[in-house]
């Protein structure tokens, strides 16, 4: 075996190792994103169950479209205090359903983004070992929003406004 063959073989080996590292990072990101989604789905299911229980307790229903509807006949005469309480419960349900739908939409967007980036080879394979590469890939799961905050040295304000510079 000549020097050229050995050098060529080492180059091919390096290419295979690089591709393996990329695959490990991509699979790790997809796995981490899916695991995060599973946890989030459990929270969404809990919130949905709580909202459905509250709705049933006060004779409301939540439609598949996310609308809150009364199960009571509108012709029933109801004392003002009870009517006001039901209005408050209905407003609470509308708010809860809105939060559930927002959480589900954000979850869907984050997971889709992670899987899209993994499939497109846009997950960086950084590290000196496969375990470091896997950890780096897993750290890239989720929304790129966090990465942008880090890149531009800003932090979200508890009131929802981004402030500069980040402290801490």
Mean pLDDT: 84
First CA to last CA: what distance? 58 Å
Shape: rod-shaped
Identify low-pLDDT runs: none
Number of strands: 4
**Portion of residues within helices:** 55-70%
Rg result: 25 Å
β-sheet strand percentage: 5-15%
Total helical segments: 4
Features of the shown structure:
168 residues
Quick rundown:
The protein has helices at residues 3-57, 80-119, 130-138, 144-151, and strands at 60-62, 68-70, 155-156, 162-163. It has 168 residues and is mainly alpha-helical.
Word description of this protein:
This protein is mainly α. It has one domain. It contains four helices and four strands; from the N terminus they run H-E-E-H-H-H-E-E. The chain has helices spanning 3-57, 80-119, 130-138, 144-151, and strands spanning 60-62, 68-70, 155-156, 162-163. The longest helix is centred in the first third of the chain and has 55 residues, at 3-57. The radius of gyration is 25 Å and the shape is rod-shaped.
